[in-house]
Specification:
Blueprint lengths: L17 H11 L6 E5 L12 E2 L9 E2 L3 E4 L10 E9 L14 E4 L15 E4 L3 E4 L2 E4 L9 E2 L10 E3 L7 H9 L4 E5 L3 E7 L3 E2 L10 E2 L2 H11 L3 E8 L3 H12 L1
Parallel strand pairs: 5-6, 13-16, 14-15
Antiparallel strand pairs: 1-12, 2-11, 3-10, 4-6, 4-7, 5-9, 8-9
């Protein structure tokens, strides 16, 4: 990069390339190998240090994706409306399920298990907005596909599958995924520890009175926010005076 002759940053040689700066940094830092186990509420932004394998199917059993009526698709008229008596009701979490039968519908709600019955039980759920009730009879319009709105066991996650991988930064949806497979904590890498300070006799903390030639220290707060956003544990050493021994003492103390 060419430099102007009156450039106040001119230093008599070529500027260091970003790739070279990264190489030098990588040679001088040691990777964090220590790990710790944290609760899910403390896991956001951390680096996962284990593979997370689901011990369960999600959903754990065939269930309904909507509020509606569980039916046998073979009972439906493909060209005209179908009228079926409503024989039973199933809510999410219900343990004792009614037995389904051909020629009848079962009222069912989102997340509720599909009922067993003749020929393996109902295979389709008609969403309640797409049908109507006439007393104890549900009126179903034609056109729904076989298996619609009925979720199979393990449709989202199968037991034994890996849902989160070591090395990934945990996002909100990853924390939720861990909870969905029953994890209450996760093994993560310890936070990278960074000591941060500013130097300059002209610097003052925000909110302090400014004397002649003084300015507020803004860079340290910007860098602190950037490091925190990266998941680092920041040791803020404040503003140091422009004296080599003060900087050396701060660095020695931070290293210890």
């Amino acid at each position: 990069m060419a430099q102007l002759t009156d450039d106040c940053f001119a230093q008599g040689g070529p500027l260091m390339r970003v790739a070279e700066a990264r190489r030098l940094l990588s040679e001088r830092i040691t990777a964090v190998t220590e790990r710790e186990r944290v609760s899910l509420t403390a896991a956001l932004g951390r680096i996962l240090a284990e593979e997370v394998v689901s011990p369960v199917n999600i959903p754990p059993a065939p269930n309904s994706a909507v509020d509606g009526y569980a039916v046998y698709h073979a009972d439906l008229n493909p060209d005209d409306e179908t009228r079926l008596p409503v024989a039973g009701r199933i809510t999410a979490g219900q343990q004792d399920l009614p037995e389904a039968r051909r020629g009848a519908a079962v009222r069912i709600f989102t997340g509720a298990r599909m009922p067993a019955g003749e020929d393996g039980g109902p295979d389709t759920v008609m969403m309640q907005e797409d049908c109507s009730l006439d007393g104890e009879t549900v009126v179903i319009r034609p056109g729904i596909k076989p298996g619609a709105n009925a979720r199979k066991a393990g449709e989202d996650v199968t037991a034994g599958s890996t849902v989160l991988h070591a090395g990934q930064r945990l996002r909100p949806q990853d924390v939720g995924q861990a909870a969905a497979v029953g994890r209450q904590d996760l093994l993560v890498s310890e936070r990278l520890k960074v000591a941060l300070f500013s130097t300059g006799d002209e610097l003052r903390e925000p909110g302090a009175a400014l004397g002649p030639g003084a300015i507020y220290d803004s860079n340290r707060y910007t860098i602190h926010a950037l490091l925190t956003g990266l998941g680092c544990a920041v040791d803020d050493l404040g503003i140091l005076p422009d004296r080599l021994e003060a900087v050396r003492a701060a660095l020695d103390g931070a290293e210890g």
